[in-house]
Amino acid sequence: MTVSDMTALIKELRHIVGEPNVLADPEDCQCYGFDASRLKGCPECVVFPANTQEVAAIIRLANRNRTPVFPRGAGSGMVGGAIANRRGLALVLTRMNQIFEIDADNMLAVVQPGVVTAMLQERARQLGLFYPPDPASLKFSTLGGNVAMGAGGPRALKYGVTRDYVLSLQVVLPTGSQIRTGTRTAKGVVGYDLTRLMVGSEGTLGIFTELVLRLIPAPQCTRTLSVLFADLDEACRAVNAILKQRVVPSTIELMDRETLRVVDRYLQLGLPAEAEAMLLIEVDGRPSEVDQDLRTIEQTCNRSTPMELRIAHTEAERELLWRARRSVSPALGKISSGKINEDVTVPRSEIAALIQFTRTLARKHHLTIVCFGHAGDGNIHTNIMLDRDNQDELTRAEHAVEELFCRVLELGGTISGEHGIGIAKSPFLEWELGSEGVAAMWRIKQALDPLDILNPGKMFQPDRAFFRP
Amino acid sequence: MTVSDMTALIKELRHIVGEPNVLADPEDCQCYGFDASRLKGCPECVVFPANTQEVAAIIRLANRNRTPVFPRGAGSGMVGGAIANRRGLALVLTRMNQIFEIDADNMLAVVQPGVVTAMLQERARQLGLFYPPDPASLKFSTLGGNVAMGAGGPRALKYGVTRDYVLSLQVVLPTGSQIRTGTRTAKGVVGYDLTRLMVGSEGTLGIFTELVLRLIPAPQCTRTLSVLFADLDEACRAVNAILKQRVVPSTIELMDRETLRVVDRYLQLGLPAEAEAMLLIEVDGRPSEVDQDLRTIEQTCNRSTPMELRIAHTEAERELLWRARRSVSPALGKISSGKINEDVTVPRSEIAALIQFTRTLARKHHLTIVCFGHAGDGNIHTNIMLDRDNQDELTRAEHAVEELFCRVLELGGTISGEHGIGIAKSPFLEWELGSEGVAAMWRIKQALDPLDILNPGKMFQPDRAFFRP
């Protein structure tokens, strides 16, 4: 786009959203030129709409000018989904941050896309209600971003993920027309399920301007225990054994040997050197139920001779048990200047096989690979630790990632459980979906966005800068 | 299609699936010319493929010949979705009826589309697992049909509907190419959610040849109670009050005054004449939990002076409580030769308003309207009773349906909670979705089915024969 075209566009944008809600100074634009992936791509201008009509007007304008539009919430995505990789406009939805309604009778919330996830959870909690999806970023990521990326979290095992809580969306389509998908009711089968098509579409099929989210009754209490194992297989077998007892914990987090060592060094916990895996398990529900679950889990774990089993009896004890898990990210930050964090997911019965494979990979490529994550749903965050200035290590890491993805697919898994594709994983989309699968998705993209205005170069095209740590 | 074209096509079909698996005799074809909607449309031939490859070959052949293909399971759909309304081929999936695998560790089942829903439930139950979706037709309807129509059922309140249990589909697209959607894992965000796009697409976007379905641990026990109210509003308020106690029953069925009268006459139950509504409530889970729920429900209902509250203490008593609910359909069959059954759904808080509105409609149009259904999720089956030979009554009923749909949409509801659109409701699609919503869906249909081969004239075009009872 020429300078004079851009000047004219900015003028029109200011007309739509008001002078202060358009940024065009390159230094301001820089602030919207990255996300949590550390990929970079600076927009030519940044616009902050206040409502659906403004979003629609911006999109129609972009279509007339063939200007790419990059929708953005908090910019906390892990795969470069919010990066302005082809210049154009960053469309930032943080001004649209109202909770319009919490309907306690029908157990739903009506919100704007810029509401921070934790805000909704807090408001729901005050009414005895519960919005379960809990991506690690929930204190700053937005609901619009969560829905666009199909965010997950530790509670998926019992409660499902973001997509399971989206009832209805108001959407501005890539051509600027407005639709409302879904219904406010639990049931509804009128036409295609565009709600679910939009969830996880990563800003390529529409911009959500209002979300109706399902809430559920809040659990009355939560109990936590941690179990340390001298054998990884034993830990994984314990996970399946617990579930076979018909106990469905709200969370089963797993930390492998490498993770435990890094965390132990960071927190000086004095964990036994032979520890090969730790499970951190939470159950929630009514007090009687939760006590019974806790006993069942304890008995099940004790059948496989754990090194240590701790039950939190107070909130302070619970915090202590979570401390190791919560310290993983800062602890990893201490040992390396960078990392590649892959959110691969395998069938629960294959978790041990996956982690064993990462050990083989680490030896083969002379890398440190740290595995932790959500054992209940098979979503294991596989972190390859990197020195950012070591190009040779980066190349070895990239090879390791490719081998990891191959193995995950062989095990019946997926290359992304909760982060999505964006730019970072777009070269691998076809590995999982096959050429016919990608072709079908691309036909849908073209049908709804004939000019490729909305978040172009994401998901489908490998516009990917290779340096990711 | 000319006779000689059809003869050539049949020859090719016999080559694909084998001689005995193609029916071309008009009398045989008649048997595949209707479904539970009582709409009619006879195919020119009927083909029974055995596997994915055969389905794909048939679809490619149909594309070459521009022959419409009408996929079909048990033909138990309520909206004419399986009707061959434009001649062509009926593609019947009942030969593909194998349960390939029940993976107890990962809690999933791999099945062919022709498996009858109750069969999977029984096989899962034997392993302590549970497939919750329970459309009324489950003893004869197929899983492929359930997924294609997005089938619901009474258990939706606690357990969700069919769409919540579909992990992955093998799909033959309308052009004959094959894709696999979704993953075997609970989490997965790679590309667009084509699984959910396919669920409820009513045979217009693809033919499912293999389904991976999620299972959950089976509840240990179930308890049932029935409550009779002298006031409809009171019954509806009780539903919300129960849910506010954080008790989520597996089922809350509601029968209105008209339903109770019809059933009472049929079964000679001796129900009090002043009874205005009955709730039939089931809770499931662990024994201690279920007993506690039952007490909470009893206390909550007793706060609103019900006429009668009965708790089933034995399986025989449970059967007795369910008898009234299960007799609704045969009892309605006794009072009229026909009916229009609309599966409208409103937010739970609006159920009383909806039923009151049907009473107004009944008076205005001199009709008998009987309401019963799933109060927990707002899905109220609204039955307009008809004499099939009375054209005047039919016209009044059609007007009443249109007014009903308007009111349902005003109340924030949907015109179909679980039956779908098919032919019967296609004239009303735009009422709910708006022209932009329908246009977006039609663009997706065209993108995946450029020749309009798969189930043409369904959902979108009002090819509807008006006589529906």
Structure, described:
2 copies of one chain form a homodimer. The longest helix of chain A has 20 residues, at 391-410. The first copy, chain A, is built from 15 helices and 18 strands. Chain A is 37% helix and 20% strand. In chain A, the strands form 4 sheets. In chain A, strands 15-12-14-13-17-18-16 form a 7-stranded antiparallel sheet, sandwiched between helices. Chain A has a 5-stranded antiparallel sheet with strand order 5-6-10-8-9. Chain A has a 4-stranded mixed sheet with strand order 1-2-4-3. Chain A is α+β, with helices and mostly antiparallel strands. In chain A, helix 1 packs antiparallel against helix 3 (52-65), helix 8 (232-244) packs across helix 10 (287-302) and helix 13 packs antiparallel against helix 14 (391-410). Chain A has helices at residues 3-17, 26-30, 52-65, 117-126, 143-149, 156-159, 194-198, 232-244, 257-267, 287-302, 315-326, 328-335, 351-365, 391-410, 429-448, and strands at residues 22-23, 45-47, 69-72, 89-92, 99-103, 108-111, 129-130, 166-172, 178-182, 207-214, 216-217, 221-229, 251-256, 277-285, 308-311, 338-342, 368-374, 379-386. At the A-B interface, strand 9, helix 7, strand 11, helix 8 and helix 10 of A face strand 9, helix 7, strand 11, helix 8 and helix 10 of B.
